Amino acid sequence: MNRSLMNIYRLGVKELNSLRRDPVLIFLIIFTFTFAIYTVATGVQTEVRNASIAIVDEDQSELSRQIRASFLKPYFKKPVLIGLGDIDHLMNAGKYAFILDIPPDFQADVMARRKPTMQLNVDATAMTLAGNGAAYIQTIINRQLAEFISKSDSQPKQAVTISMRTKFNPNLQSSWFMAVMQVISNITMLSLILSGAAVIRERERGTIEHLLVMPVTPGEIMLAKIWANGLAIILAVVLSLYVIVQGVLAVNISGSIPLFVLGTALFLYAMTALGIVLSTFAKSMPQFALLAIPFFVVMNMLSGGTSPLEGMPKFLQIVMQASPSTHFTSFSQAVLFRGAGIDIVWPQMLTMLAIGTILFLIALTRFRSTMSAAR
Prior knowledge:
Layout: H1 2-20, H2 23-32, H3 35-43, E1 53-57, H4 62-69, E2 80-81, H5 87-93, E3 98-102, H6 106-111, E4 119-122, H7 127-150, H8 174-205, H9 208-212, H10 218-248, H11 257-279, H12 285-301, H13 314-319, H14 324-337, H15 342-374
Parallel strand pairs: 1-2, 1-3
Antiparallel strand pairs: 3-4
Helix pairs in contact: 1-10, 3-8, 8-10, 8-11, 8-12, 8-14, 10-11, 11-14, 11-15, 14-15
């Protein structure tokens, strides 16, 4: 037992030294957990910022002018007045994200309780901006209508007032969400690349023959690659959370980072095993990349981080339960966003361990057959 542990340790040290001498992979790790996270968190926004809006004011009343003046920075750019006949041309040209048409006699109809209709034209090619921006505009108009009507004291006060309080991200800053989710996405990508590259590197450099004549087992070789590459990623993740996410981006992490690291280790156990499985089917790095990219894209897009899992078809929800990324995303959001403890996230951790063990056994079988074929 002690000899086996020493073999795993020494082979892992060899993996770390091999990684240290690979400048491309070192640059990839540093870039992925620093600049890539910062640029995505600050560049991709889900809230409305500087949205272009034009208004067709066919009423030219006090109320219509009040509505026009209510679209303020930083949510919207200064509204531009256009003619009714320009709507289709400007929308087709993509000049404005929103065009609001205020009909004639709008103020008179509001005062007479005739319930007039306003038309909002939305450029839905920018889907997130279209959905959030339309909700913003509706809220702004409703607020202006309520203020205008209340001046005459003819509108009875509402019996119920809804008070909204946002937890975990009070200001709804997209950078808080994007930074953490980018860390999760990068862990998934690098765990596949590093573990698979470790096996491919042995084959391309001819060192696989050296391993065959050494008194080590395939299981020891695999475990060494898993802990070495997993350790490199965990160190990068910890530094990224403290320096980039909390330091530079000032993201408030509610939960325990040590608990997140523990869950990340279980996830890496599963993902590095999957990377080794894929590497046994590839003979070179280009082939491995062609195999790994579809796995990464599917797991990243359908794990619940990009879109809610509940919004997917039922069959797809069931299938994605076999992916470790689904449970890791749920675990990460609970710990980092909501401050959940191990008493809440232990089912996800146990599931990742079970999936990782299954993938490890599959990888061990494939790795043994690969080494046997190389003899």
